Amino acid sequence: MVKHIVMWRLREGASKTTDAELIKSLLESLAGKIPGLLKIEVGVNFIEDANASDVVLYSEFVDRAALEAYQSHPLHLAVVPEVKARAIERRSADFVVLG
């Protein structure tokens, strides 16, 4: 199994909370629609901290090939510009879980 975690910091402004909820909704809408995507969770941070991310994606895939297919899947690609338009920073980690 492969775990894929992404964290974003969003642009400051009056719409930051709305933007975070939109990103959450868009990403969660991918559940059950992309082969090999086993689990997807999206959280919106509630603590104000200079070091905190605003939105976190946690997802699980059957293997690396499924993660690669997800990254080029049309449904995922449709979400990417919406996220990029609202984010100022992105961090990610991908790792294999054995056993």
Task: Give the proportion of residues in helices.
Answer: 25-40%
Q: What is CATH's topology name? A: Alpha-Beta Plaits
Structural class, judged by helices and strands? alpha+beta
Strand order of the largest sheet: 2-3-1-4
Kindly report how far apart the N and C termini lie: 8 Å
Oligomer: single chain
Biggest sheet features: 4 strands, antiparallel
Number of helices: 3
* Rg, Å, rounded: 14 Å
What is the N-to-C succession of helices and strands?
EHEEHHE
Strand coverage percent: 25-35%
Report low-confidence residues grouped into runs of 5 or more.
none
The figure for the number of domains is: 1
Question: Any idea what the CATH architecture is?
Answer: 2-Layer Sandwich
CATH class: Alpha Beta
Mean model confidence by pLDDT = 97
User: How would you describe the shape?
Assistant: globular
